[in-house]
Amino acid sequence: MTAQTIDGKAVAQQLRADVARRAALLAAAGHQPGLAVVLVGDDPASQVYVRNKVKACEENGLFSLLDRLPADVTEDALLARIAELNTDARIDGILVQLPLPAHIDSHKVLEAIAPDKDVDGFHVANAGALMTGKPLFRPCTPYGVMKLLEAYRVPLAGAEAVVIGRSNIVGKPMALLLLEAGATVTICHSKTRDLIAHTQRADIVVAAVGRAKMLKGEMLKPGAVVIDVGINRDENGKLCGDVDFDSVVNVASAATPVPGGVGPMTITMLLVNTLEAAERKRPSPQA
Ligand SMILES: Nc1nc(=O)c2c([nH]1)NC[C@@H]1CN(c3ccc(C(=O)N[C@@H](CCC(=O)O)C(=O)O)cc3)C=[N+]21
């Protein structure tokens, strides 16, 4: 059996068409949804992602504002800029691109974003709302994964789901969204003793550890669904995921490629979160 490729690009395109339609309605009613992206420093990967986000806004009728600040910007200057964006009526969503330079306290910065504009869903208030099952914003990457699983009709109720990685921005919210959908969820991480015992039990494996090609075919139960959140560079500097795709395709029933899988969905769900923030403020005539 060779796994079906889960085409994140195609699902992203469908969802973005709906975003464009709803954004046009809001714009016609007098308020184009607006996203502010703040980029500190000039990390090349961050610049690619930020460029993709701004381009996706422009292509789908959202207003976007890109704030580029020098790597040596002070924490206070960044906090002051966020305070301005919090009160800027053109802006429905604010994203401060991570990672930030070491001299800046990321936690403090993320907490400075108004929770109702925190389209990353990283603010403690939004993380708490997610944990208690009434999320205002679902973090973009886990939200995008749920949309892929939905698009490919992967049964979740009662499914054995294994999330590898426990970050605040992917692993933990991913586990909570799978739990919310009725899966039995196991979170594995660097201290997990027998990772393979868990992954071989899983109907769904989400790899979000940041280790190139870590997940191999022999670690899976035949027919498992594999979601690769990794964004690594292999020995030749080529973009690759946490999944060894060539070995996994012979065992899995479906798998996301990198690029072309979760990445486009991350961007898309950022647009969806921004649009929904705008709709909450100004219900469009027919959302
Ligand atoms: N506050 C914040 N929110 C984020 O959501 C956030 C962040 N900081 N920091 C970095 C990560 C990473 N991230 C990606 C976005 C798009 C692609 C993406 O478009 N990937 C393409 C390939 C792009 C390329 O060519 O490198 C793909 O997988 O097909 C990947 C990764 C968002 N992040």
TrEMBL record:
**What broad taxonomic lineage does this protein's source fall under?**
Bacteria, Pseudomonadati, Pseudomonadota, Betaproteobacteria, Burkholderiales
Would the keyword Hydrolase be found if you checked this record's keyword annotation? yes
What Pfam families does the record point to? THF_DHG_CYH, THF_DHG_CYH_C
Q: What is this protein called?
A: Bifunctional protein FolD
Q: Does the keyword Amino-acid biosynthesis apply?
A: yes
- The gene behind this protein is folD
Q: Which GO terms describe its cellular component?
A: cytosol
**Annotated GO biological process:** L-histidine biosynthetic process; methionine biosynthetic process; purine nucleotide biosynthetic process; tetrahydrofolate interconversion
Q: Which NCBIfam families match?
A: PRK10792.1 (NF008058), PRK14186.1 (NF010783), PRK14189.1 (NF010786)
Domain Tetrahydrofolate dehydrogenase/cyclohydrolase catalytic positions? 6-120
Q: Which organism is it from?
A: Chitinasiproducens palmae
